[in-house]
Design goal:
single chain, 276 residues, alpha+beta, Double-stranded beta-helix, eight-stranded mixed beta sheet, 20% helix, binds succinic acid
């Protein structure tokens, strides 16, 4: 029988926890993976320091939570590893990955469960990532607003997000789009979370366009509430594992013209659902 011996410490009251005493390159047994998955679902994002991972080890860790996801548009993949995205910025970059609040690839009909980002190179200062708890965002809505949104669905559109977005990318004929519940129930924690984001969500289907625009703008600004957030200062060897079902994230580009480089593995998820 295995024991679960790592130490989980909250970073802020609503979002994120640092996990110490764990080597992500190790082979985990099912009890350890269950404990990590429960901690992920509770805190929304887990942070690990001083890791050394080969591409194979990073993929093996991700695969313990589900099959790996292939990104529909990202142009920089690690040769021989189509499941690993290189996150890279330097003085020649025109944009960065994740430069506004979002949940990864929420335009997929089964959006990613989670994302494992392993940082290799950081600027001398800056390049932090912000995370926001969507449990906290849901819970802070008034009762009438919760009642309005529960049961509604929204369109998440990859076409308007990805076409022409990244330099050097070979365009696909079409990009995914999907309708998802505005409030989703987390399959592990059973808690409710807000599930609309500024990068992908275009329209609440049950509302007129002008109503949808106003409600979405209100919700996007609600996500920006600092009390829902934590902020992660990366070092080489840091890993963040975030749960796209209950957090959004926002990468900061305050370090131009410095370089930042990491490797990202994304774990496939299930169809979002709402259960009252
Ligand atoms: C992303 O959205 O995957 C990028 C996050 C980051 O670079 O911090």
């Amino acid at each position: 029988m295995s024991t679960v011996s790592f130490d989980v410490r909250k970073l802020t009251p609503k979002c994120g926890a640092e996990v110490a005493g764990i080597d992500l390159a190790q082979r985990f047994d099912d009890t350890q993976i269950r404990a990590l998955h429960e901690a992920l679902a509770e805190h929304g994002v887990l942070f690990f320091r001083d890791q050394r991972l080969t591409p194979e080890q990073q993929k093996a860790f991700g695969r313990r939570f589900g099959e790996l996801h292939l990104h529909p548009a990202w142009p920089r993949l690690v040769p021989g590893h189509p499941e690993i995205m290189e996150i890279y910025t330097d003085a020649n970059s025109k944009r960065i990955a994740g430069e506004d609040w979002h949940s990864d690839v929420s335009c997929d009909s089964e959006p990613p469960l989670g994302t494992v980002l392993y940082m290799l190179e950081v600027p001398p200062v800056g390049g932090d990532t912000l995370f926001a708890s969507m449990y906290a965002a849901y819970e802070a809505l008034s009762a009438p607003m919760k009642q309005l949104l529960e049961g509604m669905t929204a369109l998440h559109d990859g076409e308007s997000t990805y076409r022409g977005r990244y330099e050097g990318m070979r365009e696909r004929e079409s990009y995914p789009s999907a309708e998802h519940p505005v409030i989703r129930t987390h399959p592990v924690s059973g808690r409710k979370a807000l599930f609309v984001n500024r990068i992908f969500t275009r329209r609440i289907m049950q509302l007129e366009k002008h109503e949808s625009d106003a409600v979405l703008e209100m919700l996007f600004r609600h996500v920006e509430t600092p009390e829902f957030h934590c902020r992660f200062r990366w070092l080489p060897g840091s890993v963040a594992f975030w749960d796209n079902r209950c957090v959004q994230h926002h990468a900061l580009w305050d370090y131009y013209p410095e370089r930042r480089r990491g490797l990202r593995v994304t774990v496939r998820g299930d169809r979002p659902f709402y259960r009252s």
